[in-house]
Amino acid sequence: MVTMTSSADENSAGLMRLAAGGDEAAFARIVDAHHADMSSVCFVVTGGDPELTAEAVQSAWPIAWRKLATIREPERLRPWLISIAVNEARQLSRRRRRGRVLEISVAMDPTATTPDPASRAGDIDLHNALARLKPEDRELIALRYVAGFDSTELARAIGMSPSGTRARLARLLARLRSELGDG
Amino acid sequence: MDEMTEFERRFEERVRRFALAGVRPVDSAAVAHAVAVGHTRRSGSTSTVRWFGLSFDRRALTLAVSLGLLAAMLGGALLVGARLLAPSLLNISPAATNGWIAFTVGQPSPGGPDEDNDIWFAALDEPARRVIGTDTDGVDQVCPAFSPDGRSLAYGSAEGARRSLVIADVADDGTVADRLTVDVGDGLPPPCAVWSPDGDRLAFGVPRTSPTNPETSAAGSEVWVVTAADRGITVLPDLLATDIDWSPDGSLLAIASGNRDRTPGNMLLDGRIHLYEPGSGAMRSLDETRGAVNVTWSPDGMRLAWAGLVGDGDSSLELRTIDLETGRQEVLTEQYGAIHGIGPVWSPDGETIAYQRCPGNPCSGERHEVVLVTPDDRSEQTGLAGEVVMPFERATAEGSNLNLYPWRVTWSPDGAYLLYVAWTYPNGCCDEATVERTVVVAAPTDPDAPTVVVADIDGIVSYDSSYDTTRVPIQVWGRSQPPDSKPSPTLVPTATVEPSSAADGLLTGFSRPESPVKGRSRT
Q1: How far is B23 from chain A (nearest CA, A)?
Q2: pLDDT tens digits for B248-278?
Q3: Cβ contacts (< 8 Å) between B430 and chain A: which residues?
Q4: Testing the interface with A: which of B6, B9, B23, B263 to mutate, by most A Cβ within 10 A?
């Protein structure tokens, strides 16, 4: 059997080897490539908390540095890094889950290119709906719709079966549809 | 495209747009440098990277999948005890139980997004009712465990950051009154305690950061033993405990624990069984039980059954027994996998061991089987124990059928029934139209006998509890001591755990941490 390997994978594999060997520059390139992904996924897991998000991703990098040598396949790097970050985000969210007042910012995002009021209201609704979910449920949403994990990757990441993740996702979507309307 | 699919497509767009707000610019080189130099160092001799930075208290939380959690928590629910059920339904010995079954129910808190976990009692002849907690108390009460005499109930409490073990009195009518509270520490998971069979002590895991396990998501890093009479606490530090079980006479506590690391699949490496003797403070490791993850005593106290990893880096398990006098081991099962569920739990009559396994190789899916093996009825050809797989579908006492995918299972006091906390899917499992419920049922070990639904109410806490832990099952029902049980073998202490220095009691098989953690005793 011939195994096809893309040049991107070869580059990733090389970076991973170098970083696992202690090469800071190689590790910096990995950070550069994946930090945004990890942040966006964690943002959803934390229910839209930028501080927890930053803390989660910050906590994830040292773990990745320490255990990078355990990952052999380049295609596993992204889901692995995201899983580490999500795990941190979930734990942080659980810790702060009780007694915390949910603050929804109503200030306009200065970086937004289209400050459409309707879209903004929709974002607040979404924010509220996500905040009402348990961290585990937000994790599932984030991994599926932000990270783009398929059922198998989801199952591996959260320790459930693929069919179980699909069932739970379906239930979550039904709940969110009810809360958000069809929009 | 149907409406749901269209909603999903639009939802995906919205949540991706929302997620972008979490992305902030980062100086990758600075991050890499901080990680590589600022907060880590490499061991010159082994190339092992050790992390010495960031907030350790956060890591303690990460450790939170715990022993303590160990268990009862797990399925969240649990039960225990059974009330004098209608004899026509369950023939449970009245002497062994107060008749009540306790479990955790989590319902949305009206004041916020969180579930509020409370403790409910049910009996076969009485509907479920909440006995601890309210919708508005803002306190999670979890992991109920009846004392062996049925007169007390221990449970874990989480109020704000405070975590404590509460012991309450239980009246015959099922009313409950808190008697004493033992604080465990802020920000940790609430404790899930296991009573000693004599009712004198409770043991539970506390997932605390330690030099042995500075950051990984391991199980309990300490085991606490609390004396019920005076709240005296002995802490056994530097463990990565995944399961605990008391010997039938209460003189020994078996602790499945490792000392190294976990595999990526979250399985403990280098686990083994340690025996702790509270009376003398002695601790001994059973090096023969390498790989141990879960443990259960035989009712006569002479054997341990344990599920252990077959090899490092392999998540396959094997069920074995070890004779504590001769050291002789028996392999009872083929290799199997498990994602959740219980480890081995010995039946009260000593004839059967129940455990859960995931069909298929590799293990996948949530349809974990409940398997009953007979350790003393082993095949001459294979050497393996005879086994019966409990069916997923059971007829109920009401005449309907129920599919059951149990998360947690324990025995009735007479060993004739298995008490499940189980998922059930009225419309079939598991397509997108799946409606899932969690129920508490009493399933006879006779597959053809009717199953009794003990509780079917919204919010019974199952595997997706906010405090869930994976694996680490303990048995909390059916722990009555048979009258002919023998005393546990006497340990020859090779060291003694002094109340003020429990770390000294960790003997063979434990790697010493770089900076020993001192144990402590509190009253």
Answers
A1: 5
A2: 899 999 998 875 544 444 445 568 899 999 9
A3: 163-164, 166-167
A4: B23
Q: Kindly state the tokens that stand for B374.
A: 């007979």
Interface residue B215 vs chain A (CB under 8 A)? yes
Select from B287, B292, B289, B300 the least CA-distant residue to B329.
B289
pLDDT band at B92 (very low <50, low <70, confident <90, very high): very low
Of residues A32 and A92, more confidence is placed in A32
What is the C-alpha R_g of chain B?
23
Taking an 8 Å cut-off on Cβ atoms, the answer to whether A160 and B49 are in contact is: no
Cα–Cα dist A91/B218, whole Å: 13
Q: How confident is the model at residue B481 (pLDDT cuts 50, 70, 90)?
A: very low
The rounded distance, in Å, linking the Cα atoms of B329 and B336 is 18
Q: Which residues is B115 bridged to in the sheet? A: B108
Query: What is the CATH topology of the domain spanning A8-96+116-180?
Result: Butyryl-CoA Dehydrogenase, subunit A; domain 3 (1.20.140)
Cα B234 from chain centre:
20
Spatial strand order of the sheet with B437-444 comes to B405-411, B417-424, B437-444, B452-455
User: pLDDT tens across B194-211, in order?
Assistant: 889 888 999 988 876 655
Q: What is the dihedral of CA B356, B358, B360, B366, to 10 degrees?
A: 140
The residue assigned the tokens 């340690």 is B274
A144-177 pLDDT, tens digit per residue, is: 999 998 877 787 776 666 777 787 888 888 888 8
- B255-279 CB burial, b ≥16 within 10 A, e <16: bbbbbebbeeebbbbbbbbbbbbbe
- Picking from B518, B517, B516, the residue whose alpha carbon sits closest to that of residue B501 is B518
Give B9's DSSP letter: H
Distance between CA atoms of A86 and A67, rounded to whole angstroms? 16
- Taking the CA of residue B90 and the nearest CA in chain A, the distance in Å comes to 32
Cis? peptide before B191, omega within 30° of 0 = no
Question: Residue A46 and residue A102: Cα distance in Å, rounded?
Answer: 11
Top CATH class of B63-343+464-522 equals mainly beta
Cis status, amide bond into B430, omega within 30 of 0: yes
Nearest C-alpha neighbor of B464 from the set A177, A166, A45, A134: A134
What interface predicted TM-score (ipTM) does this complex get? 0.85
How far is the C-alpha of A105 from the C-alpha of A99, rounded, in Å? 19
pLDDT given for residue B68 in this prediction: 32
**Unique residue bearing structure tokens 């920000």:** B187
User: How far are the Cα atoms of A160, B118, B145, B182, B196 from residue B71, in angstroms, in the given order?
Assistant: 18, 17, 10, 19, 15
Whole-angstrom Cα distance, residue B476 to residue B146?
Answer: 7
The CA-based dihedral angle spanning residues B3, B6, B11, B14, taken in that order and rounded to the nearest 10 degrees: -130
Q: Per-domain residue ranges for chain A?
A: 8-96+116-180
Give B159-178 pLDDT, tens digit per residue.
888 889 999 998 878 899 99
SS in 3 state form for chain A?
Answer: CCCCCCHHHHHHHHHHHHHHCCCHHHHHHHHHHHHHHHHHHHHHHCCCCHHHHHHHHHHHHHHHHHHHHHCCCHHHHHHHHHHHHHHHHHHHHHHCCCCCCCCCCCCCCCCCCCCCHHHHHHHHHHHHHHHCCCHHHHHHHHHHHHCCCCHHHHHHHHCCCHHHHHHHHHHHHHHHHHHHCCC
Q: Hey, of B12, B24, B37, which one would you mutate to test binding to chain A, going by the most A CBs within 10 A of its CB?
A: B24
Would you give the end-to-end CA distance of chain A in angstroms?
48
Q: How many CB atoms lie within 10 A of CB A102?
A: 13
Domain ranges of chain B: 28-60, 63-343+464-522
